[in-house]
Design brief:
- The chain is α/β, with parallel strands linked by helices.
- The strands form four sheets. Strands 11-12-10-13-14-9-17 form a seven-stranded parallel beta sheet.
- It is globular, with a radius of gyration of 27 Å.
- The protein binds a DNA duplex through helix 6, helix 12 and helix 21.
DNA sequence: GCAGCGAAAATATCT
DNA sequence: TTTTCGCTGC
């Protein structure tokens, strides 16, 4: 037998001359992560230890050493985070970094399935449905099966969807999930299972997928189809996952499948910052990483570069209150600043006034508004402040909270687009047909059955079916859809035509139609940013625009705005000054988490995350009283903050100006 | 089969 | 306060 010696590629041996001075710019541990070559690595990084920086430099370093940027996959928690990281890498190195693939798991899965879904029996041009659509389907199935009548105690649509979501994201058995989460429904498991079966079938027949499907079907695809798995894994030579503590079992499995060929994976996370268990995230994923990827390099980043030491002290003592301890203590070599403030306001509005005035003072001191953030537990916790900020003309953006695309009138218009993109989408058909007077659930369903069998799904004027009073309106709809389908209009032209058609329905259904029509006008502008209808639907499903984003867009402020954000959406971000408002027991921790120590711990971690966002100064504030949505109210400060002693926090006293200065007085008198 | 009315219930965080 | 369910009249 002959021997043939394969020599190592000489280019692999050549040392790379880096233009970037990584040794100078990074500490030892960061450098180790950045220079890490091949195989699996687990980076455990506390808050503010330069986790993002490390990832950014690693991708830049890989690209600089000749790795094709398109073969790097950066999975992050939000689209925003991925874009920011790619931007930073681009500014450190060069434009090659723009080709790096980045986004959320859901986004990546969406792209994957829009290429390969046909391999698992779905068309590639399926539509993604959001939570409210999913709930509607569940409700439809639930009613159709008659379970709503059989037993008053049958779980409602919200409960059903959350059970199903747990099954998928945590990879649980139905029986286990129900007996753990909802023991009261154990004896109805068979019926629940029926609902789930019908739900899955409905989605399959309508060519739609919900958020969980994106993950689950991707796993299924990659598991079943070796060819696709290999191809995909080869295409993603370097896989990186940020915020790994907030991934769930499905995402861990997906990570493994994506790396099946090369095993080049680096995950970064901090178990003390896990705040998404309500979505099935399991911070155990970090501990179990070595089981999934044999022999990973473990790198710990411990020195905090973000916050001044007194903020870290508050953060550390918060974490000590956890029922399940962390052996974690953040330290910093920064100069000591001021003690974090504890501000008690007499009312929610006084709290808003405090924040607004403090923000304005900081601005006067030369701190840019976008270096200041106000954080809160729930989207609605900032409503009062938003009014106050508007009154004082302080520009702001809000992350989290209500979504523009959730509003009924926007969903109505979007439903027409969905029908154009995917004529099998019953849900969307139902929505647009039921707008018409005289058409209810039954007629809509009959019409849909007929639509499916028709040659042209938009040709609705067959008088054998439609012979009632609403014939005229059906014809109008049909004409519109055929026109839009046959003519090659731009996205915003299509939206404009739809709004023209929708106007009458809007005026009839809503008292506040002028405002809604104005929203729709805004929507025309937004839609012009998308290249095609299907792409717009995908983008909006995975990255829905928040209402305030739309509003601030309109204002076109000349100054970078103040940031308002839910704590969940503040993940991974940082600001010089951070205000955490509504620190009341019942809000944070949420009143619904008080019974369960796991949930209570998560609320504590939430406050920990908020606290560690601050670099220079931190303010906790709470009003003496806050009303919940109905009836009850909260008056006690958050137990987490109450447990901190005065060496960690400094109470601030709010006092009102007694007398106005003379010139001010004149101003008030003349007005 | 549809629409409108009154009574009763009601978990937020996000993709 | 808002959403959801069930009933009634058309």
């Amino acid at each position: 037998m002959k021997k043939f010696v394969l020599r190592q590629d000489s280019s692999a041996l050549k040392p790379v001359n880096y233009n970037i001075d990584y040794v100078e710019l990074l500490n030892t541990q960061q450098l180790e992560a950045v220079m890490f070559e091949k195989g699996a690595a687990l980076v455990i990084a506390g808050a503010g230890t330069g986790k993002t920086r490390t990832l950014v430099y690693r991708v830049a370093r890989l690209v600089e050493s000749g790795v094709h940027p398109g073969s790097i996959l950066l999975l992050t928690f939000t689209r925003r985070a991925a874009n920011q990281m790619i931007e930073r890498a681009t500014s450190i190195l060069d434009d090659r970094c723009k080709q790096i693939k980045g986004g959320t798991f859901h986004f990546y899965c969406s792209q994957l399935l829009h290429t390969y879904a046909s391999e698992i029996g779905y068309p590639n041009d399926f539509t993604i449905i959001d939570t409210s659509d999913a709930l509607e389907v569940i409700q439809y199935v639930r009613t159709k099966l008659g379970f709503h009548k059989k037993d008053k105690r049958f779980p409602n649509k919200n409960t059903l969807l959350s059970i199903l979501s747990s099954l998928k994201n945590r990879n649980l058995d139905l029986r286990v999930a129900v007996s753990e989460l909802y023991p009261q429904f154990v004896n109805q498991i068979d019926s629940i299972e029926k609902v789930f079966e019908h739900y899955e079938e409905y989605k399959h027949q309508n060519f739609v997928m919900d958020f969980d499907d994106l993950l689950m079907k991707s796993v299924q695809l990659l598991k079943q189809n070796e060819q696709v798995r290999t191809k995909v894994s080869v295409a993603n030579q370097y896989v990186m996952v940020d915020e790994y503590q907030d991934t769930n079992k499905l995402q861990a499995e997906l990570t493994q499948l994506l790396c099946s060929v090369h095993n080049n994976v680096m995950v970064v996370g901090d178990d003390a910052q896990s705040i998404y268990s309500f979505r099935g995230a399991d911070h155990q994923n970090i501990m179990q990483f070595p089981e999934l990827f044999s022999n990973p390099r473990i790198i710990k980043l411990e020195e905090n570069y973000r916050s001044q030491p007194l903020i870290l002290e508050a953060a550390n003592s918060l974490l000590q209150q956890a029922s399940f301890k962390f052996d974690k203590k953040l330290f910093s070599k920064k100069d000591t600043g001021e003690l974090p403030a504890l501000v008690r306001a007499s009312s929610e509005n006084e709290q808003s006034q405090f924040v607004a005035q403090a923000v304005l003072q900081l601005r006067e001191q030369g701190i840019a508004l976008n270096e200041i953030a106000v954080l809160f537990r729930n989207g609605r916790d900032s409503f009062d402040l938003e009014i106050e900020l508007n009154r004082k003309n302080v520009p702001f953006v809000k992350y989290g909270g209500l979504k523009f695309t959730e509003a009924a009138h926007i969903k109505d218009v979007l439903a027409h687009i969905r029908v154009l993109v995917n004529p099998k989408d019953t849900l969307a058909w139902n929505r647009i047909l039921m707008l018409i007077d005289g058409i209810g659930p039954k007629t809509a369903e009959d019409l849909f059955v007929w639509i499916q069998s028709a040659q042209n799904p938009y040709q609705l004027d067959s008088s054998e079916i439609v012979s009632k009073s609403y014939l005229k309106q059906i014809e109008a709809l049909s004409k519109l859809l055929i026109y839009l389908n046959d003519n090659d209009l731009t996205v915003s032209e299509t939206v404009e035509k739809l709004i023209e058609y929708y106007r009458v329905f809007c005026e009839k259904r809503y008292d506040d139609y002028p405002k809604r029509m104005k929203d729709l006008e805004t929507f025309v502008g937004i839609s012009s940013g998308f290249p095609s209808l299907p792409e717009m639907l995908r983008e909006l499903a995975l990255d829905p625009i928040t209402i305030s984003a739309v509003e601030t867009e309109e204002k076109q402020h000349e100054e970078p705005p103040l940031v308002l954000s839910t704590i969940h959406s503040s993940k991974g971000l940082e600001w010089e000054h951070v205000f955490i408002i509504q620190c009341l027991d019942g809000i944070i921790p949420s009143a619904y988490s008080l019974e369960d120590e796991y949930q209570l711990d998560e609320e504590l971690r939430l406050l920990y995350v908020a606290t560690t966002r601050a670099k220079q100064m931190l303010y906790y504030s709470y009003p003496a009283l806050a009303h919940s949505q109905y009836g009850d109210y909260f008056t006690k400060p958050s137990r987490f903050i109450d447990n901190l002693n005065e060496q960690v926090l400094e109470p601030w006293l709010l006092s009102h100006e007694q007398q106005l200065p003379e010139e001010e007085k004149d101003k008030y008198l003349t007005e």
